[in-house]
Amino acid sequence: MTLRRSTRGVPDLSRNSYVACARTCTVTSKQQGEQAAAAAEGSGVDGGNGGAPSVLAGGFSDTGAADAANDPSGASASAGASAHVSASDHMAGEPEDTAAAVQHFHTHSIPLDMEDIERDWDTPVTDAGIAAKASVIVRVGMLDLGAGTGSFRVREMMHRIAYPLGVHVRADVNLTDIEAACTDGKDRITEVVDLPTTGVNTERIWLLEHFADWFNVNLGEESIYHAKPTVSEELVEQLDNPASRKSAMRAVKQARREPPKGQYAQHFDHVGAAAVTGGNGITVRQAHDRLDLIERRPPLYSPWFSGLASALACAAFVFLLGGGPYDMVGAFIGAGLGQFLRRLLFAHRLNQFFVTFVCVALAALACTGTLRMIGLFDPVALQHDTAYIGAMLFVIPGFPLITGGLDIAKIDFPSGIQRITYTFAIILMATLAGWMVATIVHLNPQGFEPLGLSPLVNGLFRLVAAFVGVWGFSVLFNSPQRMCLTAASIGAITDTLRLTIVDFGVPPEAAAFIGALLSGLLASAWRSSVRRGWLPPHLGYPRICLTVPSIVIMVPGLYMYQAMFQLGQFDTQSALDWAFRAFMVILCLPVGLAMARVITDKSWRYDI
Predict the structure, then answer these.
(1) What are the pLDDT digits (tens) for 562-580?
(2) DSSP codes of every residue in 178-245
């Protein structure tokens, strides 16, 4: 007998979050059909198992500041698992108006306290039913998508998790939603997940790679992303260590001083010596416990440190654009205050377009006010009207811009177009806020005055500024410090080269392509060196986490803000000139990265 079933989401009131979506499932066995029929007759779902935590779709910011645990720009968080309340129990309680009742079912993914998942909660994941297997696969994809990575990486990650389970996955991935059909050859299930917002969290992208290796090794397969699975084993094991909240590697180092403890200690004996064979490895509960820890990780950096990183990055950005000391000071103050406020507002989950507008306006006003105050002592500071543009560069959505271009390169047009549209929507809000401030306070940005530095001195300063700028943006992306320094080293080389060849007459668009291409090649070389054992294994980072921060500083933010300013002055010819300059550079950045991936990655080299 074949029965087609639809399961509705159940509110998880203990978490003050609601997770649900439409899911259809084809059940082929007679026993499962009887269970589904019983459920359809009103038997409901047993919500009393407090051991099955629900999935909360992570939220993030528009440009990559992975912030507070309840911040759309950072790692999402949920409260600890406790008793669940079923839909039938809730409806039997105190009466509510229709809107409030409907809201309990307006959620983002299937909760885990469904019967078809709960019955396999303590079953080895390889022996679990298709619903439990799909819950792990889709949740990993959801967390990866929420961290800001491209749709091609999300699909790849879901396949990596599905492979040791013997499950085939077909997934459509967009900017904020996933529709995945999973089958193990006997049963089939389709799940839909949507995210309330989007953003970037590079630490989560990195940890999910290690989770995939940990998952595969403990199910008898070889590691995928890292040559030494012991690193992944230790990282995933230590996620519940309090020291891991600030540094996952620090927790690993502390754990090495004492014998492994906890429910995963048994795996340390065989990892690194030989792959596990013939064992079931881990249960559904254990897999979701690790994913809970990844999902609920607090941000690595406090709001004030994030503001400091933003200030340093934008001040360095201004120097690379040709600004002088006064311009850098104004950008430092404005960007620092703007990013600090941004963190505070995102902590309340406010709409990110609104937050972008408010924070850019504050940054521009703070920069202008700083220069006006300096002008009381040195009137030269009053002539630096372009500095306010540098103070607003911390909101540039570099990650969705680059991943959108890479998705298009992989012929994934729906996701690519959505990401690029989202990018331009954020840019529109930011430039509109900047134009309003400039009009109100009567600014007239005409560019930066030449500094008159010698080529050698200018090159050295550019090297330092590029390093600091990329480091700052990496902090905004919630990268661990080693990842920040690695990306900064790559960015210092590539951006200095880009600016130098522009000085020699190379068009800025071609220079941007060369810089992005070199960034991609260097990131691939770094990853390959780690896999070959030439570099320590814990320095193996996803390429996307190194390449995007290293080239986001090449995004022509000055061109985009100038285009909006000229448009606000109704000088359409100048506005179009600046806009097309920006478009050409923006076009060349993802093309350069895509070329690097084609050269170094077989999965990109062929359309298969």
Answers:
(1) 888 888 888 899 999 999 9
(2) EEEEEE-SS-EEEEEEE-S-----HHHHHHHHHHHHHHHHHTT---SS-S-HHHHHHHHHGGGSGGGG
- Whole-number pLDDT of residue 250: 57
> Burial, 450: exposed, middle or buried (Cβ in 10 Å; 0-12, 13-18, 19+)?
exposed
| pLDDT attached to residue 32 | 44
Structure tokens at 310: 């933003």
Query: What are the angstrom distances between the C-alpha of 533 and each of 386, 422, 484, 539?
Result: 48, 40, 21, 10
Q: Which of 426, 465, 420 is nearest to 583 (CA)?
A: 420
Helices and strands, number each (H, E), in the chain: 23, 5
CA distance linking residue 555 with residue 431, whole number of Å: 14
Assign 40 a pLDDT band (cuts: 50, 70, 90): very low
Q: How far is the C-alpha of 496 from the C-alpha of 490, rounded, in Å?
A: 10
Whole-number pLDDT of residue 591: 94
With tokens 């550079």, the residue in question is 585
Q: Which of 464, 483, 500 is nearest to 317 (CA)?
A: 464
Give the C-alpha separation, 474 to 454, whole Å: 30
For residue 446, with 0-12 CB atoms within 10 Å meaning exposed, 13-18 middle and 19 or more buried, which class applies?
exposed
Do the beta carbons of residue 108 and residue 21 sit within 8 Å?
Answer: yes
Local confidence band at 603 (pLDDT 50, 70, 90 cut-offs): confident
503/180 Cα distance (integer angstroms): 49
Cα–Cα nearest to 402, from 418, 419, 387, 414: 419
Q: Which residues of 508-541 are buried (b: 16+ CB within 10 A; e: fewer)?
A: bbbbbbbbbbbbbbbbbebbeebeeeeeeebbbb
d(CA 156, CA 252) in angstroms, rounded, equals 27
Amino acid sitting at position 159: H
Average pLDDT over residues 583-592: 93
> Rounded to a whole number, what is the largest CA-CA distance in the chain?
86
* Per-residue confidence band for 108, with pLDDT thresholds at 50, 70 and 90: low
Helix (H) or strand (E) holding 171: strand 168-173
Amino acid at 171: A
- Name 401's Cβ contacts closer than 8 Å, sequence gap at least 6: 419, 420, 423, 555, 586, 589, 590
pTM of the model: 0.79
d(CA 310, CA 552): 13
Q: Specify the pLDDT at position 384.
A: 84
- Residue 410's Cβ-side half-sphere holds a number of Cα atoms within 13 Å equal to 24
Q: Judge contact between 463 and 51, C-beta under 8 A.
A: no
Specify whether the backbone of 11 is left (phi greater than 0), alpha (psi in -120 to 50) or beta.
Answer: beta
Mind spelling out the 3-state secondary structure of 241-281? Answer: CHHHHCCHHHHHHHHHCCCCCCCCHHHHHCCCCCCCCCCCC
Percent of the chain at pLDDT > 70 equals: 75
Hey, which residues does 37 pair with through a beta bridge?
none
Nearest CA to 490 among 556, 552, 447? 552
